[in-house]
Design goal:
This protein is of the alpha/beta class and about 325 residues long. Helices cover about 50% and strands about 10% of the residues. It is built from 11 helices and 7 strands.
Length: about 325
């Protein structure tokens, strides 16, 4: 199968028939083998009934229905698990993403060798103050912190090599940072393509201003897990040791001043309490890192790593042949 298209949606009953017909037209024109996964994230309208009707008309359209609203990340994660295409395309259901972009996105993955290609809505039709300006600030901050240089990190229109979506997990609201997650999992050939952004034709946006606050918190989580997920002591232990050392130096200075220079009322000084606070915080940070190491080392996936390629010349060799090879090496 060439392409799997994943469409997360909530309350988009009006746009789904037009979107399905558009995708089918593009796929047939370019002779792609494909499937479309429409993931209903707890819609309260007739979106699921529409998906059932579309699937009856076109068996290449498939659906997943959540019992309640879990969020876009959960919908994408389920779609990634179900996808079978060599290239996976994600797009929103509101018709603001154009299916006409699919052939070029597919070509960039297959012919140019990208692991992930993100759409860049260079010209947007959203409100400048509530969406465009906050989005620019968000993209700038994410680029600076993660090193993934994309102009539109949160664009719903993206293309992935199949191995990428099978190697990552998204939850909470981390769909905004899929390129960052992919980078931390070793997929470094990440590109972007200028795509058409269309004005919303039906319905209303499902995201409020709180997405920006949650987005920065999720970014901090991803940065921490990416760098220190398997070695928390390297962060907490280093910070704790530094803080404890500062507190110890202050305490040593005050003790020496009292013993050798007859200074009095040392415990009434602000410096004394600052040093005490540094040692307490340092001890807590160190213990946090230690507990984190215990949790990590007892986790079931502590030694789960992504292997890009493996060479095993002995996979088809008999035991007798192995024994002869060992004898030959000993003679040498």
């Amino acid at each position: 199968m060439n392409i799997s298209v994943i469409v997360p949606l909530k309350n988009e009953e009006e746009s789904l028939p037009e979107l399905a017909a558009w995708i089918e037209r593009v796929m047939d024109t370019h002779h792609f083998t494909y499937e479309v996964w429409m993931v209903d994230d707890g819609s309260t309208d007739d979106s699921w009934a529409v998906i059932q009707q579309l699937a009856a008309q076109n068996p290449l359209i498939k659906g997943i229905k959540f019992q309640r609203n879990y969020g876009k990340s959960a919908a994408l994660n389920e779609g990634f698990s179900a996808a079978q295409g060599d290239v996976v395309i994600t797009m929103d259901a509101d018709l603001q993403d154009s299916p006409d972009e699919i052939p070029e996105l597919y070509r960039m993955i297959v012919e140019e060798g990208f692991d992930l290609v993100s759409g860049w809505k260079k010209k947007r039709y959203d409100n400048a103050f509530t969406k465009n300006l906050p989005s620019k600030l968000y993209n700038y901050t994410t680029t600076r912190m993660s090193g993934v240089k994309l102009h539109d990190m949160n664009c719903g229109l993206k293309a992935y090599r199949k191995k990428v979506v099978k190697s990552i997990e998204v939850y909470g609201e981390m769909h905004r940072y899929i390129p960052v997650i992919a980078k931390w999992n070793g997929f470094r050939k990440i590109g972007e393509k200028v795509v058409e952004h269309r004005a919303r034709k039906y319905g209303v946006t499902k995201f409020g201003l709180e997405r920006f606050i949650n987005g920065f918190l999720d970014l901090a989580t991803i940065m921490f897990i990416g760098k220190f997920g398997k070695r928390p002591m390297h962060l907490f232990g280093a910070l704790g040791s530094l803080s404890f050392f500062v507190g110890f130096v202050i305490a040593a200075y005050l003790a020496l001043a009292k013993i050798f220079f007859d200074k009095v009322n040392m415990t009434d000084r602000h410096l004394f309490y600052f040093g005490l606070l540094c040692m307490i915080i340092g001890s807590q940070l160190f213990l946090t890192g230690f507990i984190g190491e215990l949790v990590t080392r007892n986790a079931t996936e502590r030694n789960s790593y992504l292997v890009e390629e493996r060479m095993d010349h002995t996979s088809n060799v008999t035991d007798e042949e192995l024994q002869l090879a060992h004898q030959h090496n000993r003679r040498r």
